[in-house]
Amino acid sequence: MRYFIFLLMVVGLVACGGGRKQQSVPKTQVVQPAPSIVAGNPKYADSDPVDWPGRTPWQYPVHGVDVARYQLGLDWQKMRANRIQFAFIKATEGGDHLDPEFQTHWRGAGRAGIPRGAYHFYYFCRNAAEQAQWYIRNVPKDAGALPPVLDIEWNPKSPSCRLRPEARKVRASMRQFLRIVKAHYGKAPIIYTTVDFYHDNDLSKINGYTFWLRSVAAHPSKIYPSQKWGFWQYSGTGRVPGAPGDIDLNVFHGSQEVWNAWKARNGVQ
Question: In whole angstroms, what is the distance from residue 77 CA to residue 53 CA?
Answer without folding.
Answer: 33
